[in-house]
């Protein structure tokens, strides 16, 4: 009766909670917070699925993972089959199962969520992937096609391109500006949310398929689109949008005011959390304020606690209901000791005679009419300000396109916001056989959306240049 009307009327089991480290323990270490399902937990959660004839969950997935089918394999306790089903559409389930906003995508479409809690699709995806830790993709035979593909940047969109194209027999080389491959997966997301060994395993699998990684190559400087086109059949641009936005207020140049991008990169890529084994220059901060309320802001705030801060405040000009961060991340931050200063907006940063940050002045706000995004517009309350002591302010207000590569590629068409314009169906830019995807096209978005863009571009590249179909990983 799976999927029938009779079954939907029966009481379904409650959603299985995810085991986590205790809040007062995890806020002092960088180990992964969520511990993952046991087999019995996963099988129990999978049994909640209604196996709908028209699975809305799949329509909510940017890469269209056959969710109903992989869960059916789990119900049958066929973990290998579940993994093969997932990876037919998503090459990196261990990553996506951890960092995707499932509540706004697949789980947001789940029919069970209309009157209760949706199936924990992301947690099941992670469970399957983690059970396949030792499995590697079958090595393809790169060079069969004699066509070579280059990717600039090694973030999620480029990794998706590399995975699909290399399995189709194309030789793929990735050029990365940093000294470690993985892009935002490595330098932007803390290890307590996405362990470094999970990303390293995916990179290793791609290397096993024949993908080449060239580190310390800055797109637009040490390598350009034009120079790559001289040697490669196609080029994919997946450099992200890493130029941080700032507040534009007085005192932003004081010592102790940094962007979340810089702060998280120093911590994550520099391994500051492994001091004294690694000792990159990071100012720890005793009393930290984080400006913003998205996922990056939560990452920065929770990282500051783990780096030894005595207090951490999130400063946000709206209320908790309007916070763009994932609900789970907000809850974890609050459990760990992060405090929230809602309806507050920084007016200026104050420093001492050494130009060191000592406080931030906050304007108290109230909510007015909705703005273009549908959220109520915050407006200042005249005469109501407060000074908050702080020695480290982290600005997490989103990012914009970095112009380094774009300025070195004058024939690349950009929109009025400075992002690359592409054909929506193929990802091709205004330059023939040059493709782009991820944040450099859409602006700051999610890992899975970037991977979806990479898959679309890879499909077109394979159609043009590969000699055979890509085998399933």
What's this, in brief?
With 473 residues, the protein is α/β, with parallel strands linked by helices.
Keyphrases for this structure?
473 residues, alpha/beta, 5-stranded parallel β-sheet, 19 helices, 15 strands, 17% strand, disordered N terminus
Task: Walk me through what this model shows.
- There is one protein chain.
- This protein has 19 helices and 15 strands.
- The chain has a five-stranded parallel β-sheet. It has a five-stranded parallel β-sheet with strand order 6-13-7-8-9. Strands 10-11-12 form a three-stranded antiparallel β-sheet, with no helix packed on it.
- Helix 3 packs across helix 9 (121-131).
- With 473 residues, it is α/β, with parallel strands linked by helices.
- The protein has helices at 5-9, 23-26, 39-46, 56-59, 67-75, 79-87, 93-99, 106-109, 121-131, 156-167, 184-187, 196-208, 225-229, 260-268, 295-306, 327-336, 403-407, 439-442, 447-465; strands at residues 148-152, 171-176, 212-215, 234-237, 243-244, 257-259, 287-291, 311-315, 339-341, 344-351, 357-370, 376-389, 392-395, 399-400, 434-436.
